[in-house]
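Consider the tokenized backbone below.
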């Protein structure tokens, strides 16, 4: 049936499945699976440019207003609750309270197994396996067909059909004050376009411009992944002590870094302290950087960033003390920790894109160098972006300087 509309409720970007270190690329699930099915079924967007998901909707206002309006006006709503995103769960409840039917629930198998929902367990829902749906063509085709049939069922049901637990109880009848028969016209730029623009400038080392785009995103909708990249750009644009101190102050005023489990934010906070240490030689900032990198490595997200930098930073001990016993302790701690990371790397759940592969492989090479003194593979480096090239090259040169200096001190004992 043509002319019907659809809205998708889910997070965006790469998020962890709750209670695990498993990452799910929600953008891949949406763009490679959900959106193609929607388009094949002939469903339209409430907005221009086939903007079905919230981050695609052009806006200059809080995203919550768009969501509430979209949840009410859309003929069909698809809600993917795989990451138990608070907003997605809330919006699913709103939809059930607003409309009697055509609410489709998607969830990754691991999540529904760990967190079975009593309240919605009897409602129609489609479960999928995060890896198979992207890598197994036959499996994806099967799930694709199932979602397509569910959508087509929603398109053809009459007014007596109900899949909302609220309307199933006949608690009330909704009489809408207004129903717009034409597409909603929103001004501004979508979150997705802002984020992609920010990443483009960031990877080209244009940090001031990237910061501005990330700030626009945060003004519309707060997301910890976006916040961490905003902080990275805000400190990278100006490495003066004054700016670094101001950024740290802002981080601590906004987030409780002592309790966060967000690896990127912990690693970026550590990097700021490291930058201050490099300029001031103040051991307090070295110790804080070590602590944040170590904490970040406990919540490994797949690229070994915090683990690599924790080990590399241990090798700077010679810069704050002449105590040979302390230098040896830090050196062997770095070697041992690097070996531990290498042995556990095979079990890491990570994104396997060219961009992520570079970070992972180069950090793996550095850990091999720290653990075993191997640097033969350093020359085989093919960065995807300018930022990767600069970050890896500069970090590797610094690592080798510190590593050989520590070895020289220990050897001359």
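A designed sequence for it:
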């Amino acid at each position: 049936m043509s002319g019907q509309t659809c809205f998708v409720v889910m997070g965006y970007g790469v998020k962890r499945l709750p209670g695990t270190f498993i990452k799910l690329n929600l953008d891949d699930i949406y763009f490679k699976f959900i959106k193609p099915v929607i388009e094949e079924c002939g469903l339209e967007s409430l907005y221009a440019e086939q903007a079905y998901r919230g981050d695609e909707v052009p806006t200059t206002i809080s995203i919550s207003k768009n969501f509430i309006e979209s949840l009410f006006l859309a003929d069909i709503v698809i809600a993917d609750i795989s990451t138990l995103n608070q907003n997605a769960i809330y919006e699913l409840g709103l939809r059930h309270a607003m409309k009697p039917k055509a609410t489709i629930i998607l969830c990754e198998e691991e999540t529904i197994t760990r967190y079975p929902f009593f309240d919605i367990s009897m409602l129609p829902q489609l479960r999928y396996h995060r890896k198979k749906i992207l890598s197994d063509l036959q499996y994806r085709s099967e799930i694709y067909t199932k979602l397509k049939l569910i959508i087509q069922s929603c398109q053809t049901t009459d007014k007596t059909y109900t899949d909302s637990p609220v309307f199933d109880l006949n608690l009330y009848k909704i009489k809408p004050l207004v129903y717009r028969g034409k597409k909603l016209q929103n001004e501004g730029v979508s979150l997705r376009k802002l984020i992609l623009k920010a990443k483009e400038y960031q990877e080209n080392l244009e940090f001031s411009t990237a910061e501005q785009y990330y700030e626009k995103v945060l003004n519309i909708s707060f997301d910890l992944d976006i916040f961490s990249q905003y902080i990275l750009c805000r400190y990278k644009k100006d490495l003066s002590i004054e700016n670094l101190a101001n950024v740290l102050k802002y981080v601590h005023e906004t987030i409780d870094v002592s309790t966060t489990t967000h690896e990127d934010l912990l690693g970026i906070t550590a990097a700021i302290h490291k930058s201050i240490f490099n300029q001031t030689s103040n051991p307090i900032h070295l110790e804080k950087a070590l602590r944040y990198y170590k904490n970040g490595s406990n919540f490994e997200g797949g690229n070994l960033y915090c683990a690599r930098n924790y080990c590399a930073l241990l090798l700077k001990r010679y810069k704050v003390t002449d105590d040979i016993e302390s230098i040896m302790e830090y050196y062997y701690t770095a070697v041992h920790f690097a070996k531990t990371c290498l042995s556990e790397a095979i079990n890491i759940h990570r994104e396997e894109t060219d961009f992520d592969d570079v970070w992972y492989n180069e950090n793996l090479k550095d850990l091999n160098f720290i653990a075993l003194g191997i640097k033969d593979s350093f020359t085989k480096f093919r960065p995807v972006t300018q930022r990767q090239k600069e970050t890896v090259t500069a970090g590797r040169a610094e690592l080798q300087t510190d590593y050989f200096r520590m070895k020289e001190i220990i050897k001359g004992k």
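The first helix runs from residue 26 to 40.
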